[in-house]
Amino acid sequence: MIVLFVATFCGLGFVSESLLTKYKFPRMLMMTLVLLLSCIGLLLIAFPFPGSVYAASVIIGFSFGAQLPLLFAIISELFGLKYYSTLFNCGQLASPLGSYVLNVKVTGPLYDREALRELGKKGLSRSATKELICIGARCYRSAFVILALVTFFGAVSSLILVARTREFNREIYLQEV
After folding, report:
1. DSSP string of the chain, one letter each residue
2. What are the tens digits of pLDDT across the range 5-59?
3. d(CA 5, CA 146)
4. Whole-angstrom Cα distance, residue 107 to residue 91?
């Protein structure tokens, strides 16, 4: 696992930069692909089959490792460096804020609902047990589907940004040549 971490840490920035310089592949389009890859990983967890969790772990690890560096490169491309520190901090807030909302407000209640449903099937009530425990893939299925939909919405938004900034990207990449 450490080898994957080091390979991702060293390789993804290199891949993004080489695609940009050789093929003029926009970073925003790279972000779209990374988000779509993350969506696939989340769906592999939502609808598991033997060995899918391992593949999903690698896919999600690579995509999460790529999202923030790409985000900060995109921020500097779109807005320049004059207010970069302020925009960097706003970008830093996106990850913990999104994690909090999606974990506490979405995933937790969905897990609790599924655990209560499982208790009801056993003929137990909430007061009879201290903790809500749910076993099986269905416990988090709806939560991972929602996470995949949110990620897909992010990919579509990123693709719209690519289309809207096509001329801007063409201009800045021509200047770098």
Report:
1. -HHHHHHHHHHHHHHHHHHHHHH---HHHHHHHHHHHHHHHHHHHHS--TTHHHHHHHHHHHHHHHHHHHHHHHHHHHH-STTHHHHHHHHHHHHHHHHHIIIIIIIHHHHHHHHHHHHHHHT--GGG-SS----STHHHHHHHHHHHHHHHHHHHHHHHHHHHTHHHHHHHHHHH-
2. 555 555 555 666 666 566 667 888 899 999 999 999 999 999 999 999 999 999 9
3. 27
4. 23
Angle between helices 166-176 and 138-164 (to 10 degrees): 70
pTM, rounded to two decimals: 0.81
The pair of three-digit structure tokens given for residue 83, joined into one six-digit string: 């207010």
Cβ atoms of 37 and 43 within 8 Å: the answer is: no
User: Is 118 in contact with 131 (CB distance < 8 Å)?
Assistant: no
